[in-house]
Design goal:
It is a single chain. By secondary structure, the chain is of the alpha/beta class. The chain contains seven helices and seven strands, in the order E-H-E-H-E-H-H-E-E-H-E-H-E-H. The protein is globular.
Amino acid sequence: MNKIIMILGAASVGKTSIIRGLVPFMKERHAKPCLCKIDCLYTNDSEIYEKLDVPYVVGLSGDICPDHFLVSNMCELWDWKESLECDTLIIETAGLCNRCCPATENTLSICVLDATSSSRQAEKLGPMVTLADIIVLTKIDMVSQAEREILMWNLSRLNPTAECYPVDGLTGYGIELLGNAILNSPQVETYENDVLRHTMPSGVCSYCIGEKRVGSAFQQGVVGKISF
């Protein structure tokens, strides 16, 4: 087995809880996972990763968009995985920009959604949802069966080809089904010539490179204006 798993989704939807359940499941089935956590300024998820007893690395993007930062480091992460002789790299993204989707053609893209959010929330996530291979619904114990069915129907409308799994990261419900889907997903022989599934947002503007003054006189590069 040789693959890269990308766990996408907004902040606080339960991505880390999913990983906390997946890693022991995969280790029990003789997989050798390693982990990467991408964030902006700070994360304490390394404390959770440490307890999972697998190799991990944390990348803080600082002033750079975390999704752009991740894509800029994908080849290096692949080489790191290979140097550890691990067969699975699991990447947890920061999930701050709904327009960005750092998933590539060679990654298994898993989008995590909070079942307690609006039934229309998924539409705001753009390519993270519409181009995902797997969609995971978390916090399912906090919604009714009818609400869950509505969410599942809406997700099937947005992405008819994705498999959808309800998962409770705290109790472990659904982890086995999700884990088996990951283990049965296609392997990746090489990461060379890989491409993004969707383009990143356009840039660079003055504020990307440190400008603080407000006003058209100080704006250069790619600048968008509201039509009134």
